[in-house]
């Protein structure tokens, strides 16, 4: 009777070591624990110093490697992705410093970019004129009206941004993913699909012979 083996291949993984094993790219489930452990330790590839930092591995290649290294009749079913993108980047102690500078730089870009966008929008809709109109309606032309309206608008804008992005003080208000997380996830999926498509066209996919 054939041994049942279930694999759940990931969409993409970041390899922590040059040697990539099956357990690094896929979950393995089998009633035979010895077989499960043996499959998880099968080596798929090894990133050399001259190789590029990414590789697409086909599910067919993984199945072939399992059959080469395991005796007996196996029935292998994949419940995950047909291909996995494996990324590798050698650890560099200076990366932490670089990441901090990148983080600060991106924060500055986001801050000034968002500020410029808000200023441009306010100019387009003539916000100052609207605040003057509200001042005349509610305060009869009092000079303090414009200040009250500006402060209220600024606070409302700040609170609206916090609520919209669902973050505040490193805590989420709900368990729903934030709009930024959704966009980043879509971007990640598009990047992985592009890498897979380019690798297929260049015939650079680790596939079954």
Description of the structure:
The structure is a single chain. With about 210 residues, the protein is an alpha/beta fold. About 55% of the residues lie in helices and about 20% in strands. It has seven helices and nine strands; from the N terminus they run E-E-E-H-E-H-E-E-H-E-E-H-H-H-H-E. The strands form three sheets. The protein has a four-stranded mixed sheet. Helix 5 crosses helix 6. The longest helix has 30 residues. The model has no long low-confidence stretch (mean pLDDT about 85).
Please summarize what this structure is.
With 209 residues, this protein is an alpha/beta fold. It has helices at 22-25, 33-40, 59-69, 95-124, 127-139, 143-165, 179-201, and strands at residues 3-9, 12-15, 19-21, 26-29, 43-46, 54-58, 74-78, 83-88, 205-206. 54% of the residues lie in helices and 19% in strands.
């Amino acid at each position: 009777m054939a041994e049942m083996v279930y694999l759940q291949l990931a969409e993409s993984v970041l390899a922590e070591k040059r040697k990539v094993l099956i357990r690094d790219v896929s979950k393995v489930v089998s009633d035979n624990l010895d077989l499960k452990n043996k499959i998880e330790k099968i080596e798929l590839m090894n990133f050399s110093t001259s190789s590029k930092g990414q590789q697409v591995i086909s599910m067919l290649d993984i199945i072939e490697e399992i059959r080469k290294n395991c005796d007996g009749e196996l029935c292998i079913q994949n419940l995950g992705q047909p291909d996995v993108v494996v990324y590798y980047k050698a650890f560099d102690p200076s990366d932490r410093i670089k990441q901090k500078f990148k983080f600060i730089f991106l924060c500055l870009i986001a801050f000034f970019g968002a500020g410029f966008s808000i200023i441009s929008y306010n100019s387009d809709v003539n916000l100052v004129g609207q605040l003057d109109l509200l001042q005349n309606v509610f305060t009869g032309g009092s000079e303090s009206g414009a200040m009250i309206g500006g402060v209220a608008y600024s606070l409302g804008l700040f609170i609206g941004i916090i609520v919209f992005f669902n973050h505040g003080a490193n805590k989420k208000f709900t368990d729903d993913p934030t709009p930024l997380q959704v966009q980043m996830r879509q971007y990640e999926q598009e990047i992985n699909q592009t890498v897979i498509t380019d690798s297929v066209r260049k015939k650079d996919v680790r596939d079954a012979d």
